């Protein structure tokens, strides 16, 4: 049994509800199971991760096929660049039934959904899963998504976060409209709930208005866990204010240490306890029975499975910019960055990692292959060594592990890496609680009834 006092890492599985993992060549992997249109596929992965005591499985999402590259979805469809995306509300409902401990998270956009809808969806999931819900907050920037939702103009980078701040104020305010103990259910007296403990919100702001109260009572966790992945300066400020778990994309350990220190300082400056916010970089684990086998697996993933135009299609989607007008060898200039209303942190991180001479090909490979985060390669013990170095030297509080293929990549981690971490006392050997906040070592979110009553 592990020591209760020893700091332990968080493990999060990065999921996609569709035809590929975050690695866009996964559909071509010889061991990939093509069951992504079947509920049992997700249930199997959820139970597998639960056997490995993972804190959370959360799903990335986009609300459109990649259609920026060349003004068409053709290359995304032709080369399998994530053209299939299922509705996460349904998938998470399947998993709430199929699992009993692991946290369940989904990506919902502050651009294309309404705050009331998001508050109701994740409040419901938190109840129906017994306190395991998490919302990954994103500020969408993609024209293809906008065209699917009738949005005519994408907001600028900082204004997207200003709007998202108010979106979070509304969502979290709605979660606060029910106090603990509001439901009495006194059958004899005919009293269901105490009206003094259920409050209208009456939010009227620059971007949103919502009367409330929410039709979902206060949830088992106090409120669902909030995830966020902003990497620019404004994005880090947003995460410092709201996130319980910050999902980063730092490609190297020195960059990760710097990011970790900066983000923890920002959290403290925002008046929050840095120990109550987890910072977890995305990473790949390529595990083999021997180091040679692991290196062979890595080589196949890096060289053989992702078509260059699939990479460019995904890069165009990410940056909301048509890279069909560039070749892979074109440099990423300051002028190009200034013209792209996309994600600035990606270029910043790459420049720190490989130097100033970043090409379009570097960006594309970073988006579509195993270059997007650290890559831990080797036997179970060797991968555990690499993860331990990051964890124990101030680079992270754990990892968001992405899969090179489903479900085998997670099977390898659960079978070969997790036992090594458990032997070292760095990861749990069983769940100690029932809610996601308990898994993450976070306090239940407590309400402020006096403030709620004053609204």
Automatic annotation (TrEMBL):
It comes from the Bacteria. Gene3D superfamilies: Luciferase-like domain. The keyword Oxidoreductase applies. Residues 43-395 form the Luciferase-like domain. Keywords: Flavoprotein, FMN, Monooxygenase, Oxidoreductase. SUPFAM superfamilies: Bacterial luciferase-like (SSF51679). The keyword Flavoprotein applies. One of its GO terms (molecular function) is monooxygenase activity. NCBIfam families: FMN_nitrolo (TIGR03860). Belongs to the NtaA/SnaA/DszA monooxygenase family. This is Monooxygenase.
